[in-house]
Here is the input.
Amino acid sequence: MDAAIEQNRRAAVISEKKNKVLGVCLEDARISKSYLAVAFVALLLGGLLGLLQGLNRAGVLELPAWLNYYQILTAHGLLLVVVLSAFFTIGYFYAGLSHTLGGLLPKVRKLAWIGFWTKMVGLVLVVVPVLMNEASVMYTFYPPMAAHPVFYFGLVLVVLGIWILATGAFINVAHWRKNHKGQHLPILAFFATGVFVLLVGATAFVAVEVLFMIIPWSLGWVETINVMVARTLFWAFGHTAVNIWYLTAVSAWYVIVPKIIGGTRWNDYLTRVVVIALVIMNITGGFHHQIVDPGISLPIKFMHVFMSLAIGFPSLMTAYAMFRVFERTGRRKGGKGALGWFKKLPWGDVRFLSPFIAMAAFIPAGAGGIVQSTNQLDQVVHNTMWIVGHFHLTLGMSVVMTFFGISYWLVPYLSKRVLTPQMNKLGIIQTIIWTVGMVIMAISMHAAGLFGSPRRTSFTTYGDFAETLGWNPLMTAVGIGATLLLIAVILQVYAVFNMMFFAPKGEVEFPIAEIEQDEAPTPYMTERWGIWVVVMLIVIAMAYVLPLTDMIVNAPPGSPPFKTW
Amino acid sequence: MHLDEKIWLTLSFGIIMIFMLITGYQAFALEMGPPSHNEIIDPQKVDETAPFDEPGIKQIGEKEYEVVMTLQVFSFTPMELEIPAGSTVHFTLTSKDVVHGFQVANTNINAMVMPGHIQKISQKFSEPGEYLVLCNEYCGAGHQLMSTTITVK
Here is the structure.
């Protein structure tokens, strides 16, 4: 056993050295750079549309007749939740796989490009009907609202692209495992495996919804659709998707950030347990979006409160781990007393500051998530601005600020350029502006939601009600937040493209933290992905078989398509 | 694992369990569960199906009312309800077209109203005043106009 561990360590050191000598593989870098470029263009467009909405809801901007609020909102959601996050995640993890597994296999590279263009064609097919106001159906596209069929064909291609990329990742991981029998998958590749397993699992639900239910119905092959089943399948995907982006951010918290602050990473075994727990329990979390739905019994809803809250547990493990790593590192750097270690952290380094604020934001974000997943409390805030505030905290801060932090080393690494002190300073400024904007916006949204202001609603006063209910000043604050955010978006996008094409040439490291010297070896159990996938499927079956069967067997007559915009 | 980590994780688990217990107690013992009525209807024949063939407000007891209401783009039927203060109102709701939300600001009324399903929710209106009823699920171009009032006298 000990010999095997020693061999593991040595192999890790060798592969580390090999990567240092070879640097980044240019062909692999081109793949990741293409994904990142699309991600940040999506950020720019999505941010711009976000500003238009913020100003509209603040009551200062009346949209022209040819551009409707709901069209903008649909595009904003899709660009940021589906394009930015997915393209960033893929670009980042493909870079991670290439770096930690000794390069992508030629056939995997080919799959990455096929997946890229499949997704791009899919995106065009999704975006064109949205631009033509033929698909103002939001990110959730709940039937019986029916978009132009081309919109759904686009979604199918986007999902197909994800499956192609997941296949590529699995092939590369399997190849490495075959050549490294008995060894633990490098930690970043381990996270990537979890993320791609979840991506396949989550998109399977939406693929069934779109392929077998919506497309035949929107083409007129069948007359009606079961709206409850479609909605349930959507949320099995819709919630998991955002949790996948969160898991991507978590990978950087465990693996990258400790290296940036000059420390070692958290216990390898516990880290892998967190990944496995998040993979197994994630997909069943989607049901809490349906707490106030008709047709689902109270016991089923109660079971799903448990399934949703359970996801909070690995996140609470993460919260402990992160602060422990910060404390340990700060103390080793000479931090004394109860909080002296805190000052020793590299606050002037954007690669740390941005993900740190992202983590801090997850404290209120996660607490809010636990609160709103419980039945009665959800009833107070369901479909109000509170929820919008919640996912701007979780996605807009915890996830996206981590992505920003990653971009300040990943883009230079891939482009064989450096992060200059000036660019680091710009990054700090960008981080601060984004933080202030998001905090203002998220707090106002939470408050407006508690007072009853609904989400997904263009500017309206409801007679004098908006005034009397106290929504107006809060919505003005949302507009101010959105303005600051767009400034930060412009700085961020400028930084990414500058680092990609214009920054001074040079080499920067791919920061992956080492484990502690005296750490006990991780049991090989963690690498049994076959078992984890089976357990995941069992948990999904426990959660979904009963309610879905009920919805299908006791279905009402279906609904025909409607275009209500 | 450090001792403090064990304490932290025990507390974490405990918090989740306390949430579960309170949620369960409220839902099952106090009957405060979220709206979950289980009854189906043909969404294309709402107008011909009882009770929605006669939507409106009906007194069913002392200070107790039943409201049978349909939701459709972009209105509620009936609109502008009036009730005396202290009344309990039982809403029976369904949608004639797309998915809608039924929310009354400053109350805990918040329910999804889906085509093909009948949803029920009850609320006691103690404070006199005018209450805003709105649709909180995006339902189309006029979604922001979909509102009405309940006047409590």
Summary: The CA atoms of residues 101 and 176 of chain A lie 6 Å apart. Chain A has one domain: 2-456+465-553.
